[in-house]
Design brief:
- The complex is a heterodimer of chains A (111) and B (113).
- In chain A, strands 2, 4, 5, 6, 9, 10 and 11 form a seven-stranded mixed β-sheet that branches.
- Chain A is built from no helices and eleven strands.
- Chain A is mainly β.
- By secondary structure, chain B is mainly beta.
- In chain B, strand 4 and strand 5 form a beta hairpin.
- Chain B starts with a strand and ends with a strand.
- The chains are: A mainly beta (111), B mainly beta (113).
- At the A-B interface, strand 4, strand 5, strand 9 and strand 10 of A face strand 4, strand 5 and strand 10 of B.
Chain lengths: 111, 113
């Protein structure tokens, strides 16, 4: 049972490049979330989705875009990478009013 | 605007003693609270939760207390073990409506052998 899978695990981007962080879950969860964790900081919510076709902004959405065309997938898009987006990104899914399940994270460095 | 706050970035405790981690929140609409544990290079994993209709929930060595009037929750670990050394995050969310899931800044717990 895979749970929540994120790819890639590591990536180095140059300033101005774009990329998509992939997230997929096999638990048929409706709710999915993207967080970033900066060094010494907590988890900040970037975007979330309550179901296929529905997304909404979190606490720090600027510089990112998301889509939710299927229940399983929730990709996060960076269009013009900036050094401030250097962080560890976590995807999570939630099936009900209980705990969320997290992926292993994607460590992104923008140089 | 930090809706969920953990004011202690770090805590050191002797093995066998009690660890108390604290968390404050500002939004009275939150109705479900959780604690997560995170090891380096891994995603957070669920530890224990509490609904806003309760004031205490216990699971083995872990107990979470909720004080709604003070908008405060705490996690007690008794007895603390070296394997408990990790970063602990509290989280809060709305179980209806937006289902936003907000995390605190984390407390790094170090249990000394």
């Amino acid at each position: 049972n895979a749970g929540v899978t994120q790819t890639p695990k590591f990536r180095i981007l140059k300033i101005g490049q774009s990329m998509t962080l992939q997230c997929t879950q096999d638990m048929n969860h409706n709710y999915m979330y993207w967080y970033r964790q900066d060094p010494g900081m907590g988890l900040k919510l970037i975007y979330y989705s309550v179901g296929a076709g529905i997304t909404d902004k979190g606490e720090v959405p600027n510089g990112y875009n998301v889509s939710r065309s299927t229940t399983e997938d929730f990709p996060l898009r960076l269009e013009l990478a900036a050094p401030s987006q250097t962080s560890v990104y976590f995807c999570a899914s939630l099936g009900g009013a209980t705990e969320a399940f997290f992926g292993q994270g994607t460590r992104l460095t923008v140089v | 605007d930090q809706q969920v706050k953990q004011n202690s970035p770090s805590l050191s405790v002797q093995e066998g003693r009690i660890s108390i981690l604290n968390c404050d929140y500002t939004n009275s609409m939150f109705d479900y609270f959780l604690w997560y544990k995170k090891y380096p290079a891994e995603g957070p994993t669920f530890l224990i939760s509490i609904s806003s209709i309760k004031d205490k929930n216990e699971d083995g060595r872990f107990t979470v207390f909720l004080n709604k009037s003070a908008k405060h929750l705490s996690l007690h670990i008794v007895p603390s073990q070296p394997g408990d050394s990790a970063v602990y995050f509290c989280a809060a969310h709305f179980t209806s409506g937006t289902y936003k899931y907000i995390f605190g800044t984390g407390t790094r717990l170090k249990v000394l052998a």
